[in-house]
Design goal:
Length: 38
């Protein structure tokens, strides 16, 4: 059922993975900053 050769499926998977890492990284940076103002 998994067809990684399909470009759209690969794009969707890459997009989800990228956004997941982006949000995790953003949340980490916000926590690192603590009470500092942006």
């Amino acid at each position: 059922m998994l067809l990684p050769s399909r470009p759209l499926d690969r794009f969707n998977q890459l997009y989800k993975t990228t956004m997941s890492y982006f949000y995790i990284g953003a949340a980490f940076l916000v926590e690192e900053e603590g009470g500092k103002n942006i």
